[in-house]
Amino acid sequence: MAPIVELRAVGKSYGNIHALRDVDLAVHAGRVSCVLGDNGAGKSTLIKIISGLHRHTTGELLVDGEPARFSTPRDALDRGIATVYQDLATVTLMPVWRNFFLGSELTRGRWPFQRLDIPRMRSVADAELRAMGIVLDDVDQPVGSLSGGQRQSVAIARAVHFGARVLILDEPTAALGVKQSGVVLRYVAAARERGLGVVFITHNPHHAYLVGDHFTVLRLGTVELSADRADVDLDHLTHQMAGGAELDELRHELTGDSAP
Ligand SMILES: Nc1ncnc2c1ncn2[C@@H]1O[C@H](COP(=O)(O)OP(=O)(O)O)[C@@H](O)[C@H]1O
Ligand SMILES: [Mg+2]
Fold first, then answer.
1. Which residue ranges does the record assign to the ABC transporter domain (predicted)?
2. Above 90 in pLDDT, residue 79?
């Protein structure tokens, strides 16, 4: 089956800074593709290209096997590619159901007598959250009263409800503790079970390995490792993320020991 989204030898430069060079990535339905890398590795640049925020300068972007070119994030969204950013655009005083439908409110009646269909938005939001296994005390509670993990989860459920086929998550667990990260990782797995292709950006190999089907490690804009789960173990992934060969050299310099 063709990947939903594919990057082939994609490069991106900002002036004379090469943020990405020759990057390949495939996003398949029902699979979690993890993108790992240190600060400045090019992770955000990569997802900005897939989500229509930035244009790549070389290489190809394919959607459903056909070359695609996005001018705006709306174009990506129209193809079912939804992005959940780390700094979620949520209005903290708004009830959960209102936030769920923000910008796509349900109405009833005909123009000019349209009114918000509050009961339906409440019940749909409640049902969708439950379908993802997210149980809140009350969908009327303000978003600000949710934990960080719950907020990410609501954003994921929202993307699924509005028809996302690909879900891009930019470091969703970076600011969270262990328990809250677990909450988010469960919804990453739930999104995969619902058949979405997930791109999970993180610099935590442990989080990646809990849910990942494929791993791409970026370093200074190039692919350092691209491997299916069957071909890489957590130790190797952790070592790559920690700096790989560079770490070995540093160990040698500081301790006189050679690589283990
Ligand atoms: N808008 C921009 N203009 C110029 N350089 C940028 C811009 N965005 C990112 N870069 C550069 O591209 C490289 C990759 O950045 P980024 O994609 O944000 O990495 P990461 O998300 O992995 O930390 C960095 O060297 C960064 O300074
Ligand atoms: Mg980033």
1. 5-245
2. yes
The answer, yes or no, to whether residue 26 has pLDDT greater than 90, is yes
- pTM summary value: 0.86
Question: For residue 82, how far is its CA from the centre of ligand 1 (angstroms)?
Answer: 21
DSSP code string of 45-110:
HHHHHHTTSS--SEEEEEETTEE---SSHHHHHHTTEEEE-SS----TTSBHHHHHTTTS--EES-
Q: Looking at residue 138, what DSSP letter applies?
A: -
164 DSSP β-pair partners: none
Separation CA 60–CA 8 (nearest Å): 5
Q: What percent of the chain stands above pLDDT 90?
A: 53
Nearest atom (ligand 1) to Cα of 37: 22
| 86 CA to centre of ligand 2 in angstroms | 10
Q: How far, in Å, CA of 92 to CA of 133, rounded?
A: 22
What average pLDDT does the structure give for the chain? 89
Q: What is the dihedral sign for C-alpha 229, 169, 106, 135?
A: positive
**CB neighbourhood size of 60 (10 A):** 14
Residue 201 confidence (pLDDT): 94
